[in-house]
Amino acid sequence: MSAVAPVTLAEIRKGLAWRKQLDKVFVIVGLLILLLCLGLLAVLFLDLVIQGAPRFGWDFFTSFPSRKAERAGILSPMVGTTLIMLVTVLAALPVGVAAAIYLEEYAPKNWFTGIIEINVTNLAGVPSIVYGLLALGLFVYQFDFGQSILSAGLTLALLILPIVIVATRESLRSVPKAIREAAYGLGATRWEVTKDHVLPYSTGGILTGLILGLSRAIGETAPIITIGALSFIAFLPPSPVTGEFPFLNFEWLKSEFTAMPIQMFNWISRPDQAFQVNAAAAGAILLGMSLAMNAVAIWIRYRFRKKINW
Questions:
Q1: Which residues, at least 6 apart from 163, have a Cβ–Cβ distance to it below 8 Å?
Q2: How many Å apart are CA 129 and CA 122, to the nearest integer?
Q3: Cis before residue 237, ω within 30 degrees of 0?
Q4: Bridge partners, residue 248, by sequence
Q5: Which end of the chain is more exposed for a tag (fewer CB within 10 A), N or C?
Q6: CA 65 – CA 270 distance, rounded (Å)
Q7: pLDDT, tens digit, for every residue of 158-208?
């Protein structure tokens, strides 16, 4: 058997230099793709702003939709979107965080939990229309919630639940095991370790995942169309806050609703060019809301990371 020739130092240096060059090429290509995507987004946003500029004004925010383009506004769609997002947060956050804590801190590592983890990950890629059909049969008809804000919020909560679970689990995993072991060594129970040590350190990642999920949900159209969102509403739901005890009103959960994406779809489908301007203005506002939510997520992550010392 012939002996293998030893690798010389020059060959090793040549191989390392070649790998470093490949790394630089990869970084440059990735940076160019990132700049291209950001450029396309900036062009789209700027185009919407330019088209919708004639409608930007206080009247546009405080007026109801109308059959006359110059008098139409986004008051009811914007209020509807806000209330739907409120229900989505209240439903998705506790369920998603609880599921992630169980899978990461309590569940045994066996084939059953493996199946659950695979399905949770796969659910993030399910088309949104499937969630709409599920909600139509479950919330609208089976639970008899009707075509209401409650049904819409729960539908979008199901949609973003996998995102919240995955983001929470990743945030929990980022907490060093040494912190858990130190707490166990001092006699803390598993729940005390999770509640007093793991969750506080992972709060930034959890909130970031939630906001990113809401950024996706705020622009969804197919699920809420499926459950019966209206395309024209000239009234607001009942106020959640009242002046009499107990100062909370839950009638708004049963109210009919519309949302910003639905209103945009209604306007863009009309032949009058003035409605196209309204749709562009609403699109710029909706995209701005989504970008603002992402900016808040980045800020929250930055602030919580500054407080972590390990």
A1: 124, 209, 212, 213, 216
A2: 15
A3: no
A4: 241
A5: N
A6: 13
A7: 999 998 998 898 888 888 888 888 888 888 888 888 888 888 888 888 888
User: Could you read off the pLDDT of 7-34 as tens digits, one per residue?
Assistant: 676 767 766 777 888 888 899 999 999 9
Q: How far apart, in whole angstroms, are the C-alpha atoms of residue 78 and residue 288?
A: 13
Q: What is the pLDDT of residue 3?
A: 57
Structural domain boundaries in the chain: 56-307
User: Selecting from 1.10.10.350, 1.20.1260.10, 3.40.1190.20, 1.10.3720.10, what CATH number does the domain 56-307 have?
Assistant: 1.10.3720.10
Q: How many CA atoms lie within 13 A of 186 on its CB side?
A: 9
Residue 138 is which amino acid? L
Q: List, for residues 250-260, the tens digit of each pLDDT value.
A: 888 888 888 88
Cα torsion 200, 206, 211, 212: sign: positive
For residue 194, give the nearest of 172, 169, 164, 171 by alpha carbon.
172
pLDDT at residue 190, rounded to an integer: 85
> DSSP letter string over the chain?
-PPPPPPPHHHHHHHHHHHHHHHHHHHHHHHHHHHHHHHHHHHHHHHHHHHHGGG-SHHHHHS---SSGGG---HHHHHHHHHHHHHHHHHHHHHHHHHHHIIIIIS-SSHHHHHHHHHHHHHTTS-HHHHHHHHIIIIIIIS---SSHHHHHHHHHHHHHHHHHHHHHHHHHTS-HHHHHHHHHTT--HHHHIIIIIHHHHHHHHHHHHHHHHHHHTT--HHHHHTT--S---S-PPPSB-SSTT-B--GGGGS----HHHHHHHHHTSS-HHHHHHHHHHHHHHHHHHHHHHHHHHHHHHHHHHH---
